[in-house]
Design a protein that fits this description.
The chain has 209 residues and is α+β, with helices and mostly antiparallel strands. It has helices at 18-23, 42-49, 58-74, 130-135, 149-156, 192-203, and strands spanning 5-8, 26-29, 80-85, 88-94, 99-100, 113-124, 142-144, 170-177, 180-186. The strands form two sheets. Strands 1, 2, 3, 4, 5, 6 and 7 form a seven-stranded mixed β-sheet that branches. It has a two-stranded antiparallel ribbon with strand order 8-9. The longest helix has 17 residues, at 58-74.
């Protein structure tokens, strides 16, 4: 098993597929209509998503191809996966390489980009540390949660939670523009007032109108 862990949301093509994820033992992402992505590089994915049917530009393009690249190229067999669905958290191990399922490659289904998963546990959001719950707020279909690997592994296999899993700063990565992410850390117990102060500070950082 690796030391990587990933977030994959159960809403490919904006349709909740948690039942399919569980019964078919998969995780999946949307973007139907672009075909099999086996062997496609990050640059290939950028080109594909900048053309029809999606024709993404700017930040939308950066977010899309970064997410698809995670699912197609960065995940590996043996990595851990966390899928949140409301208050429920599903935990498992990725069991396959990227797979393309043409039977569900259409607008009404739209979850053809898949990986098989061995599901191990189902817990609630309240079972997670505050730091990990905060990391789940990222607005991405798929994201790297490897900085929470020890906690996710413990929750996945019903092991004792390492003390270090519930403390320390939270690492944040935000795609400001294509090919440029901002990375920074915030305290795990950050208050709403502190978040508002940070928001005000960031709003003063523009240098070009």
């Amino acid at each position: 098993m690796s030391n990587k862990a990933w977030l994959v949301r159960p809403n490919p093509a904006d349709i909740n597929r948690i039942n399919e994820f569980q019964t078919e033992n998969i995780v999946a992402i949307g973007w139907p209509g672009i075909g099999d992505l086996t062997g496609k590089t990050r640059q290939d994915l950028k080109e594909i998503l900048s053309n029809p049917p999606y024709s993404y530009t700017a930040l939308a393009l950066g977010n899309a191809y970064a997410t698809v690249d995670i699912f197609v190229n960065q995940m590996n067999k043996g990595d851990l996966v966390l899928t949140p669905d409301g208050d429920n958290i599903y935990l498992g191990v990725i069991a396959s390489n990227y797979q393309f399922n043409p039977k569900v490659d259409n607008i009404s289904n739209g979850y053809s980009h898949q990986r098989t998963v061995e599901w191990h546990n189902k817990i609630t959001r309240e079972d997670l540390s505050k730091a990990l719950r905060s990391s789940l707020k990222v607005h991405r279909t798929a994201a790297d949660l490897s900085h929470h690997y020890n906690e996710i592994k413990a929750r996945c296999f019903n092991m004792p939670i390492p003390k270090t899993a519930t403390t320390g700063p939270i690492k944040i990565s935000y795609p400001l523009r294509p090919n440029f992410n901002i990375s920074f850390e915030i305290p795990a117990d950050m208050t709403k007032e502190e978040a508002e102060r940070l928001k005000t500070f960031i709003s003063t950082l523009h240098f070009k109108d």
